[in-house]
Specification:
This protein is an alpha/beta fold. The protein is built from 16 helices and twelve strands. Helix 3 (67-77) packs parallel to helix 7 (183-192) and helix 8 (196-204) packs across helix 11 (285-304). The longest helix has 20 residues, at 285-304.
């Protein structure tokens, strides 16, 4: 039996000895068997989804609760129509993911004809909590809500107390970033009309030894200095990069090491790149790729000798945010002008670095954000550059930025215009204050770790020069 087969055998046996002593794996390996459970429950999920009358779903979540569903929606939206592969016939229900606290985006979410799905593993995550409070103030109708959470959480209790339409209690031994093939991903999939059984069966047919080989190659490349895992996906499946970015970054970025995921839809090369093309033929291939990358990332952790299931640095920015909110009004934080940013980056980066563009701006600027990412990449002669919306990235790549290698150069972009006043029921602050506090808290965390960071206030992403 070769090394890959041995690793898969140990993984199937839930052998926590694959990772360093003291790891949390014994409480985080439920994802290995969950596709079988979801395949068995597929018919019931579809029957429940058919009872939902609303033509739209708004999902309130963050991190592992939101990125998988965002992929599932995006792939269908980029297809040929509502009768495309993977969807039941008839007019397709659409899903809008709200995983931001920017008031311009939150205030624009239309709940008038929406079924509202609230997803939070812990049931205490701040963003879903305040987004639910905002939604309930507008739509206090329990028949239009369902939640996905772990058993016994405050969110599960709230669902019972308010008599919400459904509470899906997920197996508690599954971490958020490994949860896409559990209720966290498959409930939204059912609402979108996916054949959940087909997705899960495809996952169960994954070539596990190939997946182990992928993980070992990622880890070995990182140890050899090629730690920028450049995941190249087809244009239609571009959103898959958001999901795999979180999985890799949060799982491996710790103890000063890790793989830096660079999702892209076009080839990118460089001496520090480890390029992995990902191929899709049909939407059900998502099931295989989700599972393939979960296996690969877990075993990459074995090669790097880190625990791929913990997140030791994630709480830092949350703590700093709470400190800022507990001492209002907001402190004044100096920011730089947009002009000269490219020159600052060129003077700051070193060989082997990467740039992280952290945009605390309204959603709907994907094309502009990607254009900025490419402009910085080209200005820096092909250096790895990643880009994401804040505070979304705090629950995905944030762990890597603080706990991974000291090769990150962070460009924090904040809105010059704070946006509309959108109150948060029961809180002494509004959404504009919250996202500003999150940006300040993250900036403090980056500085505390000695990271190189530039904070720029912008009205438009095109201002950066």
């Amino acid at each position: 039996m070769d090394h890959a087969a041995n690793l898969i055998d140990a993984l199937r046996r839930r052998d926590a000895g694959l990772w360093p002593a003291g790891n949390v794996a014994p409480d985080r390996l439920g994802w290995i068997e969950v596709p079988r459970r979801m395949a068995d429950e597929a018919r019931g999920l579809a029957a429940w989804a058919d009872t939902v009358d609303q033509p739209r779903v708004v999902l309130l979540g963050m991190g592992g609760s939101s990125l998988g569903p965002a992929v599932l929606e995006s792939v269908l939206d980029a297809g040929t129509g509502p009768d495309g592969a993977g969807a039941r016939r008839g007019e397709r229900r659409h899903l809008e993911v709200c995983d931001t606290t920017h008031p311009a985006t939150v205030g624009a979410v239309d709940l008038s004809d929406a079924f509202i799905l609230v997803s939070s593993k812990s049931g205490t995550t701040l963003e879903p909590e305040v987004l639910l409070d905002h939604a309930w103030a507008q739509v206090p109708d329990p028949s239009r809500y369902a939640v996905v959470t772990d058993p016994g959480t405050p969110l599960a209790a709230l669902a019972r107390d308010r008599g919400l339409a459904r509470c899906f209690e997920n197996p508690p031994d599954i971490g958020g970033r490994y949860s896409v093939l559990s209720y966290f991903g498959m409930v939204p999939a059912a609402l979108l009309g996916y054949d959940v059984a087909a997705l899960c069966e495809r996952a169960l047919d994954t070539d596990l030894e190939e997946a182990a080989g992928l993980g070992m190659a990622m880890g070995e490349a990182a140890l050899a200095g090629r730690d920028k895992v450049t995941v190249v996906v087809p244009e239609r499946f571009g959103a898959f990069g958001l999901w795999v970015e979180q999985l890799i970054a949060e799982s491996t970025g710790k103890q000063g090491t890790g793989c830096v995921p660079v999702p892209t839809v076009e080839p990118e090369d460089g001496p520090d790149r480890h390029v992995v093309p990902v191929h899709f033929d049909e939407v059900e291939d998502l099931g295989e790729q989700f599972y393939r990358w979960e296996v690969a990332t877990a075993l990459c952790g074995h090669v790097l000798a880190i625990d791929p299931f913990d997140e030791p640095n994630v709480a830092e920015s949350k703590h700093n945010t709470n400190e800022v909110l507990g001492a209002l009004p907001l402190p004044t934080v100096p920011d730089e002008g947009a002009a000269g940013t490219l020159d600052w980056l060129a003077a700051t980066v070193r060989p082997g670095d990467y740039v992280s563009v952290q945009a605390y701006v309204p959603f709907g600027q994907d094309a502009a954000l990607e254009a900025l990412r490419r402009r910085i990449r080209d200005h820096l002669e092909g250096m790895a550059v990643t880009a994401g919306y804040g505070p979304r990235f705090l629950h995905s790549t944030g762990q890597l930025h603080k706990g991974g290698p000291d090769t990150v150069v962070a460009l924090q972009l904040v809105s010059r215009d704070p946006g509309p006043v959108v109150p948060i029921p029961g809180k002494p602050y509004d959404f504009a204050t919250l996202i500003a506090a999150q940006a300040i808290g993250d900036h403090r965390s980056l500085v505390a770790h000695g990271r190189r960071v530039r904070r720029v206030a912008v009205g438009d992403l095109g201002e950066i020069g």
